[in-house]
Amino acid sequence: MSYRLLISYNDFRQASQIARYILKHRLQAKVDRLRGERRYRVMLLWQALNCAMLVAYCRPFSGNDRRTARRIPDLPRRFLATLTSEEREIPELALRDRNTLLAHSDSEAWALQPFFVEGTSGRKILIPSHHDARAPLIHEIVERLDAMCGKLIEAVFQERKLLEPDLESVLPAGPPSEILADDAAPAAANHAVQWTGGA
Question: How many domains does the structure of the chain reveal?
């Protein structure tokens, strides 16, 4: 549980930071206003950030560790009790989007309806018409998700403070250079930051 609390704190913080970036840079308004190549570039950024935000937000509840050797249980759903009933609808939307649209290519979510268009020359062109499975959340929902992240960050932090006295006797203490394992470095060698001491 203590490991999941530490990981979840950072997941919710990342989701909040991305949400604030989306809102600060008014990506939805820019997509509505711009045309051509500039609109395409902003839309691509908005889609990518939306995907990253939802994946980070859902990670504490997603059950990703089911098949790993060092399984860390999901964050208990009781943490969602800090949210209002209206806010609790968003985690379900976020998890559904993450599971069907973003992290997996779900055929039902795409609602693919291919058809042929026949041109004047008689040549047929296949059109893969589909639901926009990459459509980002509107800013109103992003604002609510950011507020929820703040509440969840605080709830996780308060729980962590309660556990810290018990952890002092079982976790190592000392300078990071002596504690952090060298054998983990090769696995992280392709990443920009290998170790971080976040809150």
Answer: 1
